[in-house]
Design a protein that fits this description.
By secondary structure, this protein is α+β, with helices and mostly antiparallel strands. It has a single domain (8-191, 235-351), classed as 2-Layer Sandwich (Ribosomal Protein S8, Chain: A, domain 1). It has helices at 16-29, 34-49, 60-69, 97-115, 136-139, 194-202, 239-261, 289-304, 320-332, 340-351, and strands spanning 2-3, 10-14, 79-83, 87-91, 117-125, 144-150, 171-176, 183-188, 205-206, 212-213, 219-220, 233-234, 274-281, 334-337. Strands 3-4-5-13-6-7-8 form a seven-stranded mixed beta sheet. A three-stranded antiparallel beta sheet has the order 11-10-12, with no helix packed on it. Strand 3 (79-83) and strand 4 form a beta hairpin. The chain is globular and about 50 Å long.
Length: 359
């Protein structure tokens, strides 16, 4: 197996609009209603634009398979489980996750404008894609967004000190405004993701560090252990030495998602999906929007002016590289991972949709 730090293979560059149009057309030919297809296509493309290419258009072919199986609903509305002025809980009924998550953010923003904060929890959503694709929906309006999710159907991460998976990697994102670009944080409670593990396994490659455990609990860099019988697990964030931190973060995320939603791992499995927590805060309701930005600017300058360690050119803020990549790819084309178009080719042929040509 090759180490994961070998060069990522790309299939060339493609116009962002052409990719968006193709993704939308495939989703609509599969039966997804146009408003929902628009949100799904935009969120998946945003993942690639920001450089999260395991959680961008790489998810489109699996989503199309879920639609065909009837595991992702094509249209409809969410049900309101409970509601108070500043909070709400929805049942997504397995509607597309990007559409549900955008609606939840919009609803939380509306509440935050009135009450200073708004929280929406969604249970029984389908998969929501790349979390980094969402925060600018709030930060562009001067607001702070917290977003996290968990999939109660799956498990690949063991508790710290254990060997049997009990939760998913459990990503969490935060976005907050500054005087310039927002800070966009997107991390997981595990040291790596299912998507990257599956890609490296498919390509016969290894991680650059022992980020996994085999079924006996021995550390390894080989993603094949996750597909063995019995399977291994992904280490919590912090690894063997400090994985108690990722373990604690994973438990917190389970409480915010499954716990608040009243639906999760204690219930029968329904298939690949997500339970989602969205919270928006309006700085003007707290210490003031201007002072929030003043504090954020101090942090930004403290990071950027920090003396770098050897082999580091300069300190960057979370999201800085992704936003620069987004601007570059919008101008010069999206560099697609080589796996994406071959996975979409059978669907394009089935639905009579032309795949984009490379620039």
């Amino acid at each position: 197996m090759q180490p994961s730090n070998s060069r990522t293979e790309h299939a060339g560059r493609y116009a962002a609009q052409a990719l968006l149009d193709c993704a939308r057309a495939l989703l609509m030919r599969a039966g997804i209603a146009e408003p929902l297809a628009n949100d799904v296509a935009e969120v998946l493309l945003e993942g690639d634009l920001l450089g999260h290419d395991t959680h961008g258009l790489a998810l489109l072919a699996p989503y199309l398979a879920e639609i065909e199986r009837g595991a992702m609903r094509r249209d409809g509305r969410y049900a309101i489980v409970s509601e108070r002025p500043a909070v709400a809980t929805w049942d997504g009924g397995r509607l597309p996750g990007p559409w549900l998550t955008r609606r939840a953010i919009d609803a939380a923003i509306e509440r935050a404008r009135t009450y200073g904060t708004g929280t929406v929890v969604v249970r029984r959503s389908h998969h929501i894609g790349c979390l980094a694709a969402y925060p600018r929906r709030a930060t562009d309006q001067g607001l702070v967004l917290l977003l996290t999710c968990s999939d109660p159907n799956a498990a690949s991460v063991a508790p710290f000190g254990g060997t049997r998976a009990f939760v998913t990697p459990n990503p969490i994102a935060c976005g907050f405004p500054t005087a310039g670009d927002p800070v966009l944080i997107d991390i997981s409670a595990s040291i790596t993701t299912n998507g990257m593990s599956a890609r490296l396994h498919r390509q016969g490659r290894r991680f650059s560090h022992p980020w996994l455990l085999d079924a006996k609990g021995d550390a390894t860099d080989d993603p094949a252990v996750l597909f063995a019988d019995p399977p291994g697990t992904i280490l919590p964030l912090g690894g063997l030495d400090a994985g108690h931190k990722g373990y604690g973060l994973a438990l917190m995320i389970e409480a915010l998602t499954a716990g608040l939603a009243g639906f999760g791992r204690a219930d029968p499995k329904e298939g690949w999906g997500a339970t989602v927590f969205v919270q928006v805060l309006d700085p003007s309701a707290f210490g003031g929007a201007g002072d929030f930005v003043r504090q954020a600017e101090w942090l930004r300058e403290a990071c950027r002016s920090n003396p770098p360690r050897p082999d580091v050119d300069r300190v960057r803020l979370p999201g800085e590289r992704g936003l620069a990549r987004r601007r570059e790819q919008l101008a010069h084309g999206v560099a697609l991972n080589a796996d994406i178009l071959p996975a979409l080719a059978p669907w394009a042929q089935k639905f009579g949709v032309a795949l984009p040509a490379a620039l």
